[in-house]
Automatic annotation (TrEMBL), chain A:
<dbReference type="InterPro" id="IPR001750">
    <property type="entry name" value="ND/Mrp_TM"/>
</dbReference>
<feature type="transmembrane region" description="Helical">
    <location>
        <begin position="6"/>
        <end position="30"/>
    </location>
</feature>
<feature type="transmembrane region" description="Helical">
    <location>
        <begin position="132"/>
        <end position="152"/>
    </location>
</feature>
<dbReference type="GO" id="GO:0008137">
    <property type="term" value="F:NADH dehydrogenase (ubiquinone) activity"/>
</dbReference>
<dbReference type="GO" id="GO:0042773">
    <property type="term" value="P:ATP synthesis coupled electron transport"/>
</dbReference>
<feature type="domain" description="NADH:quinone oxidoreductase/Mrp antiporter transmembrane">
    <location>
        <begin position="126"/>
        <end position="422"/>
    </location>
</feature>
<keyword id="KW-0874">Quinone</keyword>
<feature type="transmembrane region" description="Helical">
    <location>
        <begin position="408"/>
        <end position="429"/>
    </location>
</feature>
<feature type="transmembrane region" description="Helical">
    <location>
        <begin position="76"/>
        <end position="96"/>
    </location>
</feature>
From TrEMBL, chain B:
<dbReference type="InterPro" id="IPR010227">
    <property type="entry name" value="NADH_Q_OxRdtase_chainM/4"/>
</dbReference>
<dbReference type="InterPro" id="IPR003918">
    <property type="entry name" value="NADH_UbQ_OxRdtase"/>
</dbReference>
<dbReference type="GO" id="GO:0015990">
    <property type="term" value="P:electron transport coupled proton transport"/>
</dbReference>
<dbReference type="GO" id="GO:0048039">
    <property type="term" value="F:ubiquinone binding"/>
</dbReference>
<keyword id="KW-0472">Membrane</keyword>
<keyword id="KW-0560">Oxidoreductase</keyword>
<feature type="domain" description="NADH:quinone oxidoreductase/Mrp antiporter transmembrane">
    <location>
        <begin position="134"/>
        <end position="429"/>
    </location>
</feature>
<keyword id="KW-0812">Transmembrane</keyword>
<protein>
    <recommendedName>
        <fullName>NADH-quinone oxidoreductase subunit M</fullName>
    </recommendedName>
</protein>
């Protein structure tokens, strides 16, 4: 097929991101400079973000059989780019300036994050198993390097290797599943697969197995139970901004493609697969929340809580009709905002890099009396994760419950209620720790002027947004309302 | 425009208190006091100018004394819809009054982080006022959950751990939060169920009270949705066996927290039953009434027995609340106008008397630094005024004629007797146990041999004004309750009609 200017406009976010990768790489080759790489990255990401607007004008547009740029893809591209921007900003604060901070080469981190973001952009526009796989690997491979970026820290290296091995295993499952699907339907396009399955009425055992194995592969990336074992270790080991990226951009992209796959071929979700997904949802909610109860490490706790949150999202996935896609979109936006905020606080507390991250709970004890506004940020984020009104997390949870009730999924809705009740316990534990009397242990805090730096300003912005959307969610709902599939 | 201001004043006042701490610890107290006074004055002004013959009733669109509506979330037909009738006004007046008292009673008790404390206190009160005014179900739920957070902070940060150190204040606060949050989510599921049923019938998605009242529900659906609402209110009221957060939260909370919990927060549940659960699901409620009344009966006796067994004075008062709320529950489900009017008086009277008892035990704690009654005794002659005033409120709590509690309990019992003679007869004997635990509290704390020779400071002007004011109000309520009854009568008449019709239908179906 011919590529016209229209197609290039539609692809602009991806193209600009890719060009930025090259520019940043050449920049590093020319002159190593932390601020220069950072500024180039930010400029590129912002341009890519702006280019979504013209892309939206030409959407929906099929660009080669591999990619489909529609409003859904644009929304997810926006989420990925915004969260990448946020992670990059946090990384700049984390790596530090001058002598203080990260001792190794700082610039490559931006390169890796940009590549992973490009992979995410491919993934959310994918409508073909080939582009799904390309996108997924482009997203995952740089992340191995990112997780192990602080490689002289044992945990970081361990996390990186663990993520690599398990991710490769997940990819193997994914490929096997794709092969089975291809054998059954004779095509790799989502819609063709959907038609082939729909033609037979119920998915055949081979097709079911293929889809199931793909679900396993994607479930690894989303850390759904029982494929969640890597999550806490990797979250703990990864440098805080990278953990933020893992929790937000990476997961959103994978979930986006999962939604598209199952929405384009709805027959795929019928039969035994629905039951499998329901079990995965309930298991993720309960296991994630229960294991989070005893954590004394904030990053591990957030890791387990993200398992539970993707369990909630699976409820909407199982519902798959009515408000489901809208609910998933809203929930993902609120989840991304909240996770960025929570990891942002951890990052700023650990900035500039000094050997290990400030992620133990005791380091946050009495933070309110030392850094009141940073505490306010984390408080809002914890309340939002717990889904309490006045924060955006409540709107997300409201949507998921509404979807569950609409689809009469009583068991799943019930497990959400139970899961939230358990969840409240550990979110409150974190929250109240912040306000307890100060312990007198030596620790390092966020720098005094954190709120005047880019990372701090962004964090305050996210907090205000999380609060504003909790009180007046209509703008978000309008935005998301245009982004259905 | 007055209704949103009733909600906004405490929220804004709270923020001012928080920032006011920069100028010393006294300023937040005065700001908080002014805020709550303003709230009360505004409430009284509405009372004096409004006509309270308008109230929701079956068969027509609800009418209100005051109403305010603003679009909020168009996607779901959610609006900022506030409305006021006699019942909500009385509850708001109670909130304002107890708000003033909770500021006053923490004047000396709270010395740490005064600004943040008052921020939380004001926000609780703002949330409660929101619950009393909201008639959009989403908004109601919004305030219902929102007031938990400041309450959590109040208990967790300024509370007292129990003497043996087993139950910390954080434990109590977390338990309170989880109980209410989980039951709240069940209510949210029921609300959404109701909204979707309404959507399937009419094609209009809305959370508005007036629209949802018209929803036609099948028998099974109505019953299940009613249970969803009932569970949330049962936790907050509380009804045995969902009460176990209450004694912990009360005992561990600072005085102001206990006053708000017992005085106002428990009333939000009774209000919710009267405003939402009964009118929205009258048939299921009528069918459920015998069970609810038996639960109330269990509450009366269970609360009374456990109150008797307590050694911690605040836990004793907490369990007495369980007992009193049992009467309220029986009254609500009796379906008679008299009993419903009694419920209103009982709620106000219990709010005043429980608040007074908590304030008094707070004052006792400030002097003795213990709440354990085994370490008290013989205090009658050692603290000026306090024991005698305690005796008065203990007597009020056991329902002595001349106090508001008597009027409330009497009306509830006489009203329920028609429809449920057996339950009423048994409930009446619960009053005897009420006198037992009230008097044993006085006996253990103030009579008997003295445990130490220490002489304690008498009550100062602030402390006296608080409790004497409450005593005067309680006597006024007991001697001349007519203004209150007039204000709430239209609302209660509506509720009675909903439930009465349902009872008749149920009787003819059997």
């Amino acid at each position: 097929m011919d590529l016209t200017i229209q197609h290039f406009i539609a692809l602009a976010p991806l193209l600009i991101t890719s060009i930025t990768i090259v520019v940043v790489m050449l920049g590093i080759a020319w002159r190593r400079n932390h601020s220069q790489s950072f500024l180039l990255t930010v400029a590129g990401l912002n341009l890519a973000l702006l280019s979504i607007y013209p892309a939206l004008k030409v959407a929906p547009l099929v660009v080669t059989p591999l990619l489909q740029i529609d409003s859904f893809a644009c929304l997810y591209m926006g989420i990925i780019l915004v969260s990448t921007l946020a992670c990059v900003t946090l990384a700049h604060a984390y790596l530090g300036e001058g002598k203080a901070g990260y001792p190794g080469n700082r610039e490559e981190l931006y390169l890796l994050i940009l590549m992973a973001a490009a992979g995410g952009l491919v993934l959310v526009a994918a409508q073909h198993l080939a582009s799904l796989f390309i996108g997924l690997e482009l997203l995952s491979v740089p992340v191995y390097g990112l997780v192990a970026y602080a490689f002289f820290n044992k945990r970081s290296l361990e996390g990186g290797i663990k993520y690599m091995v398990l991710s490769a295993a997940g990819s193997a499952f994914l490929l096997f599943g794709m092969a089975l699907l291809y054998a059954e339907s004779g095509s790799l396009g989502f819609s063709e697969i959907g038609k082939a399955i729909a033609a037979t009425g119920m998915p055949s055992p081979i097709a079911s197995l293929g889809l199931g194995m793909m679900l396993v592969g994607l479930g690894f990336k989303l850390s759904l139970v029982p494929f969640h074992l890597w999550t806490p270790d990797v979250y703990e080991g990864a440098p805080a901004p990278v953990a933020a990226f893992l929790a937000t951009a990476s997961k959103v992209a994978v979930f986006g493609v999962l939604v598209r796959l199952f929405q384009i071929s709805p027959a795929a979700t019928s039969g035994v697969l629905t039951d499998v997904m329901s079990v995965i949802a309930v298991a993720s909610i309960l296991v994630g929340n229960l294991l989070a109860l005893t954590q004394n490490n904030l990053k591990r706790l957030l890791g387990y809580s993200s398992i539970a949150h993707f369990g909630y999202l699976m409820i909407a996935m199982v519902a798959s009709k009515g408000m489901a896609v809208e609910a998933i979109n809203v929930y993902l936006v609120t989840y991304v905002l909240t996770s960025l905020g929570a990891f942002g606080v951890v990052t700023l507390m650990s900035s500039p890099y000094s050997g290990r991250d400030a992620d133990a709970m005791f380091e946050y004890r009495g933070l309110f009396w030392r850094r009141p506004y940073l505490t306010a940020v984390l408080t809002v984020m914890m309340l939002s994760l717990a889904g309490i009104p006045l924060t955006t997390g409540f709107i997300g949870k409201f949507y998921i419950i509404a979807t569950g009730v609409e689809a009469h999924l009583w068991w799943l809705t019930g497990s959400l209620v139970v899961g939230s009740a358990i969840g409240v316990f550990y979110y409150l534990r974190v929250m109240v720790t912040l306000y307890l009397q100060d312990s007198k242990i030596q620790r390092h805090d966020a720098p005094f002027n954190w709120a005047q730096r880019a990372g701090g300003v962004m964090l305050l912005g996210i907090t205000l947004l999380a609060f504003f959307l909790g009180v007046y969610p209509q703008p978000l709902l309008t935005l998301v309302g245009h982004a259905g599939l | 425009m007055i209704l949103p201001w009733l909600i906004l004043i405490p929220f804004i006042g709270g923020l001012l208190c928080w920032q006011g701490e920069r100028f010393g610890p006294t300023l937040p107290r005065w700001i908080a006091l002014l805020t709550m006074s303003l709230e009360t004055i505004l409430g009284l002004w509405v009372w004096s100018t409004g006509t309270f013959t308008y109230a929701p009733a079956p068969g027509a669109d609800p009418t209100w004394a005051l109403e305010f509506k603003l679009q909020w979330i168009q996607r779901f037909g959610i609006s900022v819809h506030l409305a006021l009738d006699g019942l909500s006004l009385l509850m708001i007046l109670l909130t304002g009054l107890l708000g003033i008292l909770s500021v006053l009673c923490s004047w000396k008790e709270i010395q740490r982080n005064v600004g943040f404390f008052h921020l939380n206190l004001m926000w609780i009160l703002g949330g409660v006022v929101g619950v009393f005014l909201a008639i959009d179900l989403f908004m109601f739920f919004f305030f219902w959950e929102m007031m938990l957070v400041p309450m959590y902070f109040l208990i967790a940060l300024w509370g007292h751990s129990s003497a043996d150190g087993k139950k910390t204040r954080i434990y109590a606060a977390t338990k309170f939060f989880i109980f209410t949050q989980a039951s709240g989510l069940i209510m949210l599921v029921a609300i959404l169920g109701l909204v979707l049923v309404h959507f399937n019938q009419t094609g209009v998605i809305t959370f508005g009270y007036a629209d949802l009242l018209k929803t036609k529900l099948s028998h099974g659906t109505e019953y299940i949705l009613m249970l969803g609402f009932f569970i949330a209110f049962a936790v907050k009221l509380p009804i045995v066996p969902l009460h176990s957060w209450l004694p912990d939260a009360h005992a561990q909370a600072p005085t102001a927290g206990s006053v708000d919990l017992a005085g106002i927060l428990l009333k939000t549940a009774a209000y919710g039953l009267l405003r939402f659960a009964l009118p929205l699901f009258p048939n299921a409620s009528a069918e459920f009434a015998p069970i609810a009344m038996v639960l109330g009966l269990i509450g009366i006796f269970y609360g009374a027995f456990l109150a008797f067994a307590q050694t911690d004075i605040k836990r004793l008062i907490a369990f007495s609340s369980v007992s009193h709320m049992g009467f309220v529950l029986i009254g609500i489900y009796s379906g008679s106008q008299q009993a419903l009017q009694g419920v209103v008086v009982q709620m106000l009277a219990h709010g005043l008397s429980a608040a007074a008892l908590f304030i008094l035990s707070g004052q006792l704690y400030e002097r003795l630094h213990t709440r354990d009654m085994r370490e008290m005794g013989g205090l009658w002659s050692k603290i000026a005024y306090l024991p005698a005033i305690s005796l008065f409120f203990a007597a009020a709590s056991l329902g002595l004629p001349g106090t508001g509690n008597f009027v409330g309990e009497f009306l509830i019992l006489i009203g329920s007797f028609v429809s449920a003679p057996w339950i009423t007869a048994i409930a009446t004997s619960g009053l005897v146990f009420g006198s037992v635990y009230s008097l044993i509290m006085i006996h253990r704390a103030y009579f008997g041999p003295a445990k130490s020779d220490a002489v304690y400071k008498g009550m100062d002007g602030r402390e006296l004004i608080m409790v004497l004011g409450l005593a005067v109000l309680l006597i006024l309520l007991g001697v001349y309750p007519q203004p209150i009854l007039d204000t709430s009568s239209a609302t209660m008449h509506g509720v009675q009609q909903w439930l009465g019709t349902a009872f008749t239908q149920l009787a003819s179906a059997r």
